[in-house]
Amino acid sequence: MAIKIIIISIMFLFFTPVSVYAQTQTISPKEKNLANQTGIDASDFIPSIKDFIGKIILLRLSQNIEAYYISYGDFPKRSDEKWLDELVESGEMSKSYKDMLTKFMPTKLCWTVYQEGYCYKKIDKNSYLSLRLISRKEKAKCKNGIPTFTWSSQNGETATVCIQTTNL
What we know:
By secondary structure, the chain is of the alpha+beta class. It has one domain (47-167).
């Protein structure tokens, strides 16, 4: 029962829109204590957790994409908001997992500074998966851009990539 409550709490934190935290950055004493124990700035605690969980989900999605490649010898072709449907139709992702992702984290405005959710793109023989990061710690890594956590099939690795706002 306690594990269910923790999972639901984490999902609430992760899937609450960023704009909600921009408006109300209040943090409870319990959250502040936990933030101090983890070494995270208390006012950046929730965005940091959202970034952390988002990275874990992106890694799981990259495994689904790699499984698709192993099964079909190519990466999913759709690069629009419906790219997850291709993974479900192929059997590489469950419909319930896809529905959960799209309900709480809809993909919008991919590969722009306004990106939300998980974005996928296939270019030639490679594919890329990206998530915009929101914590101050991650934003500090990109002085003149927007931090995104990006996976590339080219080398199978992830990195924080800065999308330069001047290039958009």
